[in-house]
Amino acid sequence: MCGRYLIITTPEAMRAFFRYLEQPNFPPRYNVAPTQPIPVVRMFEGVRQFALVRWGLLPAWVKDPRGFSLVINARSDNVLDKPAFRNAMRRRRCLIPADGFYEWKVEGERRRPFAVRPRAGGPIAFAGLWETWTGPNGEELETAAIVTTQANRALRLLHDRMPVVLAPEAYDMWLDCRAVDAQIAAALLAPAPDNFFDAYEVSPAVNRVTNDSPELLVPASELPPAPEPEKPAKPKRDDRQGSLF
Questions:
Q1: Which domain holds residue 135?
Q2: Nearest-CA neighbor of 187 among 97, 94, 77?
């Protein structure tokens, strides 16, 4: 699963890496959350294109979005057959630029957040699917989901799923929906190598969507200890009243 991620590479470096023509100016994001606008790279008339879409895929056939569950991830094992993903897998594949993601390790009732970042640095590209939904009044909403696969051995202790990370040499194959059919593209949906990522625990501050700063990436081991809760003060005795005890 991938429910939060980060994208902090500068716009200039991102443009050079993914080779699109647009020159967007977007700020670094340390805590990207579902329903927020996210950058994607897709193919348009044979050329790579940058676009901003909503994170949370909405298939074109949905009549009322209020009755459709938010779909932020697409499982690689059913993208070819599941109605929510089938058409996008055939015709609307995209890259989702990132510099890492967050995962939570569940221990009983406790959930410990971990930052998962590429050892070689970013940016990287998650495999993505996008759709355009048209409302009853003609309004259009472009949305996307991150494709996930089984976690590799290194990340399996955190969660059993991870985003699909595409190798740069596979970008054109994934994006070119005209020349590469869905069956062939699906062969790219594999876990990253075991040594691709580093994972380390971070502050629970990442749990709050409103927190979006470099401090979220500081290892928990380097953070100052949390202050102990203050003990409640004992009530002062009122000597003006007599005691029955």
A1: 5-217
A2: 77
